[in-house]
Write a structure and sequence with these properties.
By secondary structure, the chain is an alpha/beta fold. The chain has one domain: Vaccinia Virus protein VP39 (Rossmann fold, 3-Layer(aba) Sandwich). The chain is 42% helix and 20% strand. The protein has 13 helices and 8 strands. α5 links the parallel β1 and β2. α1 crosses α4. The chain is globular, with a radius of gyration of 19 Å.
Length: 271
């Protein structure tokens, strides 16, 4: 009995040490030189410390960030893993945007080279690539995939199922697929594509979609909930900050609401 208690005590100390090390790494990234005041100003809405701790990110992980965009989360994720783990960024394929949005397509085209050219941020073994164009990562090589406010674009663009099938292959058994997504009301009568065009997705739809592609819901959190968000804005989610697509029109009203109501879902590869 004494030996068993001693063993249990050692296990708890190890687990506690692991949690502390993860929290310390997140805090270091939050305070790091890669972030500026504009990044930090959004923490009050995006709760990065609590969100990343909830997902269970560790500095030794190989992670994939989906659709890094302006890099707000990149400037947290890449420093977290660049020394002991590996960062992989998967952006949109530039091809479909070349004609209508040439500047956007040009930026996307340069993304892999921009990651390679900046090892100080991303790490020496980091990689930039495109979703649905080439290999995101080797089979069963990724510990965690993080998708932050991305799913509406995949659903409205019609390639969510194909992308999820590709990403499922890259995750290790038991690997985590972490999602933060603008959340629609469950009573919204529109179909999923129409809702997604406004930037929102029903939580039930997201869960069913992930389950259908081999990801089991492990936990959900209200870390990023915002009950002030009525979700009925004239320019969809982009009416709210930080986009403020209406400019000065009702600006104070939307600033008072803050950023969107968001689901925070942790899935694991189940099959």
């Amino acid at each position: 009995m004494t030996r068993w208690l001693a063993t249990l005590g050692t296990m708890l100390l190890v687990l506690g040490g692991a949690e502390s090390a993860s929290a310390d790494a997140i805090d270091a990234a939050l305070r790091g030189k890669d972030r500026d005041a504009a990044d930090a100003a959004r923490d009050v809405y995006r709760h990065p410390r609590e969100t990343l701790a909830f997902f269970g990110i560790e500095s030794e992980m190989t992670i994939v960030e989906l659709m890094p965009g302006g890099g707000w989360y990149t400037r947290l994720l890449a420093p977290l893993v660049r020394e002991k783990g590996r960062y992989i960024g998967a952006e949109y394929d530039p091809t479909p945007y070349a004609e209508e949005y040439p500047d956007f397509a040009a930026r996307l085209s340069k993304y892999p080279d921009s990651v390679k050219a900046n090892p100080a941020l991303y790490g020496e073994n980091a990689r930039g690539t495109w979703i649905l164009r080439g290999e995101v990562a080797e089979d069963a090589s990724v510990d965690m995939i993080l998708g932050i406010r991305f799913l509406h674009n995949w659903i409205s663009g019609g390639y969510a199922e194909k992308a999820l099938t590709e990403l499922h292959r890259t995750l290790k058994p038991g690997g985590v697929f972490a999602i933060v997504q603008h959340r629609a009301g469950e009573d919204d009568p529109r179909d999923a594509v129409e809702i997604a065009k406004s930037g929102y997705v029903k939580e039930s739809y997201a869960i069913d979609l992930m389950k259908a592609h081999g990801f089991a819901l492990a936990e959900r959190s209200e870390i990023n909930a915002n009950p002030k968000d009525t979700r009925d804005h004239p320019e969809g989610v982009w009416t709210l900050p930080p986009a403020l697509r209406l400019g000065d029109e009702d600006k104070e009203k939307y600033l008072a609401i803050g950023e969107s109501d968001r689901m925070t879902l942790k899935f694991v590869k189940s099959k």
